[in-house]
Automatic annotation (TrEMBL):
Chief place of localization: membrane
Keyword Zinc: no
Originating species: Scleropages formosus (Asian bonytongue)
Subcellular location(s) of the protein: Endomembrane system
Domain HTTM-like: 53-312
Recorded GO MF terms: gamma-glutamyl carboxylase activity; vitamin binding
Region (Disordered): 339-363, 738-758
Record's protein name: Gamma-glutamyl carboxylase
PANTHER family: VITAMIN K-DEPENDENT GAMMA-CARBOXYLASE
Length: 758
């Protein structure tokens, strides 16, 4: 992180020239040429302090400050949730929340809007460099409050935003292209100490490198973590020369591993930086399309120029017309001296009394604290991703709270079965709860600390429904990285009374059956033998436990086959038991009925369900018939007269009212699906101006709602809420949708008959 500023030479006019002369480069040692400093700079603490406080051009840091503030202002309205804040924090609603500390509670609704307004104004202040330090405090205080308020929204990039905001609070990033610089000539275009760049560069290096180290996990190297990504259209060019399996293994997993491990190093050196900039830019642009990660891809793009010479904005923007200079970062003059830096003695041969020549200074307390902070912060960031031996209570199948470990995309999960059972502590009555009741999140399924919070919250709400002293049991089946579906928590433990500590291992966490991981190769072979209408689910269970399962009437030819261990299958209604050994198969489990599968072997059992969704298969056959009939009608080859109920096939796509007039449910679903496919085709084939217009309109209405709801909340805090009828009208106005808006394709498909089962 030191490479680029250490070649800075202070000029007699008090400016700086980042690139040394040819004579200086020739005279410099190899270490100076490669790393930017000499071994002697590390020979003592005082020289190290001088090194980290060496005067540096503020231009690159100032541009990054502007971009970060802009992106955070957009993030507040999107991923932080300003545009849907009233749905996230429902006043008076019986919701279960998951704060980091149980004493944290959301403020009343109008005050939460005030918190978000302060966060937004802080981000704008950072962007403009206006009352910079105060703006940073406004942003990070509210940001970390919202962050700690909801663990279910944690992720690596949200954590990174808070870290960068904290770093900027301590830096002099308002010395270039800022309103503070216009207000205070001493701050305008003044040098910043080298550690300002060192800290943020080290942070980005750690994000890349630790993410790469975490991807050395066997699941990632073998290509199981993100198998589904290879089917995305972004990888179509690779699929022209490679099968999809190799695209997943070599491009998605291999390419991601190599890029993360090497990006930080390649960005550091002059010779490799251009290549690194191309690859990391392509990588982040792809991520912006592959994942719903808000401003993360663009934030990482904004950090890449920090690795260039710090005067790059001056050299870049001086090529623009002078008439644009009012709006662009300034190219001149050169930086002026600053008390934040330590200036070396004047080089021999330079006039010591020349105007503007900075006087030599010695490191003071401020400079020492800056150097000390740099070392402590970088050490802490290197330690935290491996600190899970301390916070053992947060360890599940993966270590720690997801967010600060930089294990991005290393683990993918699927949930096959979730059952919540309650038992009345007074009467002994047993009942079941809808999974996710009283909460807006699903992440509690994978984290013991959140499960404990959820159970405690449910125990407070259930007495309102005449359930006294409830005991609550969770039976959660999860597959991680394409393994067997298996239990993650012990279903026999009452989580309300169960012990949990952040510093001790979770006693009711079930172990991940890693010894069964080699079966994943067999899974692919088995799935390859099935037709498109046949589905398979692979199950692993522990000795002494059983799975209670219900076979839907929509599923036909449902069978269970044992792969390993020994099980007893009980048909509940028939009260009949069957014992199955490895290779045994029980065909035609009764539909519309419960059965239980008991693991009776000494070790874990492994078995698989194979089934056909007969309802969906019949629906697809009907769709095929209707599509063929529609094509015959259009090309004039259909000779038989159409029955009255099929007349909408002729105008089904053109007539907007025809769907509501259709009595046949299959035909109605067919017409709806045809309409959605047409809309999707139109969206895919839209021109670039149409796509831009659609994007701008969508974002406009999202921002519009956020700011109108904020204005309503601020009015309520200032003068009190209006009559309910007026408030209802104001909210309805804020909820106005864009013209001709349509429900999303996914929502429409989910409403179709059979799609949920599919």
């Amino acid at each position: 992180s030191l490479r680029y500023e250490l070649n800075t030479v202070v000029s007699p006019q008090g400016g700086s020239s980042v690139q040394p002369s040819k004579r200086q480069r020739k005279a410099a040692s190899w270490m100076k040429r490669i790393f930017g400093f000499e071994k002697e700079d590390l020979s003592s603490w005082e020289r190290l302090v001088c090194l980290l406080n060496r005067p540096t051009d503020p231009a690159s840091l100032g541009v990054f400050r502007f971009l970060f503030g802009l992106l955070m202002a957009l993030d507040v309205t999107q991923e932080r949730g300003l545009s849907h804040l009233d749905y996230k924090y429902l006043d008076g609603a019986p919701l279960c929340r998951f704060p980091l500390f149980n004493f944290l509670e959301p403020l009343p609704m109008d005050w939460m809007y005030f918190v978000y307004l302060v966060m937004f104004l802080g981000a704008i202040g950072i962007m403009l460099g206006f009352f910079y330090r105060f703006s940073c405090l406004m942003f990070i205080s509210t940001y970390w409050y919202v962050f700690f308020l909801d663990k279910t929204a944690w992720n690596n990039h949200s954590y990174l935003y808070g870290l960068i905001g904290f770093q900027l609070t301590l830096m002099d990033a308002n010395r270039y292209w800022s309103i503070d610089g216009l207000r205070n000539p001493k701050k305008r275009n003044a040098h910043v100490p080298l550690w300002n760049y060192t800290v943020v560069r080290a942070q980005i290096f750690i994000v890349y490198f630790i993410a790469g180290v975490k991807k050395l996990d066997a699941d990632w190297v073998e290509g199981y973590s993100m198998q589904y990504l290879a089917h995305h259209w972004l990888f179509d060019p690779f699929k022209l020369i490679l099968p999809v399996e190799l695209v997943s293994l070599l491009v998605v997993h291999g390419g991601g591993l190599v890029l993360d491990l090497t990006a930080g190093y390649l960005l550091f050196f002059d010779a490799t930086r251009p290549v690194a900039m191309v690859f990391v830019s392509y990588f982040h642009c792809m991520n912006s399309q592959l994942f719903s990660i808000g401003m993360f891809a663009y934030t990482m793009l904004a950090t890449s120029p920090l690795f260039c010479y710090p005067d790059w904005p001056r050299r870049f923007f001086r090529h623009f017309p002078a008439c644009l200079g009012v709006f662009l970062p300034p190219a001149a003059p050169l930086p002026q001296p600053s008390t934040s830096c330590v200036y070396p003695p004047t080089p021999p041969g330079d006039p010591k009394d020349s105007p503007g020549t900075p006087k030599p200074t010695k490191p003071g307390r401020r400079h020492t604290l800056g150097a000390l902070f740099t070392f402590l912060y970088v050490a802490e960031q290197l330690f935290l991703p491996y600190s899970h031996f301390i916070t053992q209570g947060y360890n599940n199948w993966t270590n720690g709270l997801y967010g600060y470990s930089w294990d991005m995309m290393v683990h993918s999960r699927s949930h096959q079965h979730v059952k919540i059972t309650y038992r009345d502590g007074k009467t002994g009555d047993i009942g079941y709860l809808n999974p996710g009741v009283f909460t807006q999140s699903r992440r509690w399924k994978d984290h013991g600390d959140m499960l404990k919070q959820y159970a405690t919250c449910l125990s407070r709400h259930l007495p309102r429904y005449n359930i006294t002293d409830p005991e609550i049991y969770f039976d959660i089946w999860v597959s991680i990285n394409e393994r067997f579906q298996q239990r993650i928590f012990d279903p026999r433990v009452d989580i309300v009374k169960a012990e949990w500590s952040p510093f001790r291992p979770n006693p009711w966490l079930m172990p991940l059956l890693v010894d069964l991981s080699p079966w994943r190769v067999k899974f692919s072979e088995i799935e390859g033998t099935l037709d498109n209408q046949t589905e398979v689910v692979f199950i692993a269970d522990f000795p002494g436990l059983h799975l209670e399962n219900y076979v839907s009437g929509d599923l036909g030819n449902t069978s269970v086959q044992v792969l390993q261990g020994q099980v007893n299958v009980e048909i509940v209604e028939e009260k009949v038991n069957y014992t199955l050994h490895p290779g045994d198969k029980m065909k035609q489990l009764p539909g519309g009925a419960y059965h239980k599968v008991y693991t009776v072997s000494e070790g874990p059992s492994c078995y698989m369900y194979i089934y056909v969704n007969t309802t969906e298969a019949a629906l697809q056959r009907n769709f095929t018939h209707l599509l063929e009939l529609q094509e015959k009608i259009r090309n004039g080859t259909e000779t038989e007269p159409l029955p009255p109920e099929l007349q909408p096939l002729i105008t089904g796509l053109e007539d907007d009212d025809s769907e509501g007039n259709v009595s046949d449910p299959v035909l109605r679903v067919f017409l709806r699906r045809q309409r959605r496919m047409k809309e999707r085709k139109e969206r895919r084939e839209a021109s670039l101006p149409q796509r831009i217009e659609r994007f701008v309109v969508k974002k406009y209405y999202m921002l519009r709602r956020g700011f109108l709801m904020t204005a309503i909340a601020m009015r309520n805090l200032a003068v009190g809420p209006p009559p309910l009828e007026q408030l209802t009208q104001e909210v309805a106005y804020a909820n106005m949708k864009e013209p001709d808006s349509k429900a999303s394709l996914d929502d429409s498909l989910q409403a179709e008959v059979g799609h949920g089962e599919l």
